[in-house]
Amino acid sequence: MELHGQPTDPYRIFFPLGIVLGVMGVAIWPLYYFGVTANYSGRVHAFVQTDGFLYAFIAGFLLTAIPRFTGTDSPSLRTQYVLAAMLLLCAFAFELWAFPVGNALFVAIHATVATLVIRRFRRRKHDPPETFSLIGLGMMAGALAAVVDFGVACNAILPSLDLLGRRLLSEGMVLLLVLGVGGFLGPRLLGFAALPKFDTVEDARSTKNILFYKAAGITVLLSIVAEYGFGLSTMAFLRAAAVTAVILTTVRPWRRPAVRTTLAWRVGRHTG
Fold it and tell me: Average pLDDT, whole number, for the chain?
């Protein structure tokens, strides 16, 4: 039986870790229901799910895919284990309501992942897909969110910015990462282009397209800051327009899948 990928691929560590952290995030509800704990915190749940559960899958995917797309090496197993341990400690800190500690750990975690990604981009042998410019902006949103959340937890930033920090994670970082990855893989899962080989990017890169994706990503970021930082709720419509433009350009949801696979038809149904 041929092994898929490499034994050192980061997703082999971070995907199972994400499942464990997801269970930790939702465990507060049954524990409270059955009387094991006397109270619960929706804030704990939110941070464990975003900074733990979701981020474990984000780190696992990026640290596996980015090296393959750029022709570089994966992080060492020691680095992966240290990062995984930091994620686990981060989740436990939130579970114990130690928000300054949890957010400080997340700042270090995000900085580590961003450093690993940047180093591989700088040493790249192949240019990544055009839509991956949205991943860079997503990592910027995550960095800003981490700093804001840490500042609020330490009372160094106004509590009124708490929602901005959390939305920069959920509506900023996660959304932009999904658009960046989905914008490339979506058309290939639907059969509109060849599936990636991960050792090269076959499509010709267009400067015009890259500028379009960057503009859309910056629009998403600025709209989040304007809405949750300055109370301009109408910015949600601008953000929706930018996201819709990216989806229409990449996935083209009005088209029927070109291949007859269960995955293609499920993706097509959810985007159509």
Answer: 88
Buried-exposed string 25-49: b where 16+ CB fall within 10 A, e elsewhere: bebbeeeeeeeeeeeebeebbebbb
Q: How far is CA 17 from CA 117, 154, 188, 191, 268, in A?
A: 20, 28, 28, 31, 29
Among 33-47, 177-191, 219-233, 254-268, the minimum mean pLDDT is found in 254-268
Could you write out the DSSP letters of every residue in 179-214? HHHHHHHHHHHTTSSPPP-SS---SPP-HHHHHHHH
**Model pTM?**
0.87
Task: Express each pLDDT in 77-107 by its tens digit.
Answer: 999 999 999 999 999 999 999 999 999 999 9
Nearest to 137 by CA among 108, 177, 100: 177
